[in-house]
Amino acid sequence: MGRGAASAGTAPRVRAAELGDASDVARLLGELGYPCSRDEAAERITLVRHDPRQHLLLAEIDGEACGLVALYSLYSVVHGSELARITALVVTAACQHQGVGRRLLREVELISRRNGVARIEVTSNARRTDAHAFYRQCGYADSSLRFLKALGD
């Protein structure tokens, strides 16, 4: 699919990613900084589609994929309730500031409420200050620091 800007006034449509969306998913993950091949994206879509605790959604404007969000839910022992975690959110540069990111967040919030989730968390690289401002504008509050240790290799 193309990468052009959306038509003025066209609302984004959000739907579950399908196997045929693998090229778009790979492109969007690459834009987020996590490149993968079409085949790797297809494998990820398949895994998510078979896991009821995960959702991978695409946003489209005029039939063109312009955004993606991945959501995972789990039981939080600390909070004693279901927790949802946004593990990826990206909107193409050409479609930013058109409501795509907000539409994706609204959809994962609806899914989360429907599934009895009490809270949603999202992590964002410290360098992504524009993303931090976006999350704050959407009602997400600064929270804990996140620490990471890579295992393997």
TrEMBL record:
Q: Does the keyword Nucleus apply?
A: no
Q: What is its EC number?
A: 2.3.-.-
User: Keywords for this entry?
Assistant: Acyltransferase, Transferase
Q: Which GO terms describe its molecular function?
A: acyltransferase activity
Which residue intervals define the domain N-acetyltransferase in the entry? 12-153
The domain of life for this entry's organism is Bacteria
Record keyword Lipid biosynthesis present:
no
Name used for this protein in its record: GNAT family N-acetyltransferase
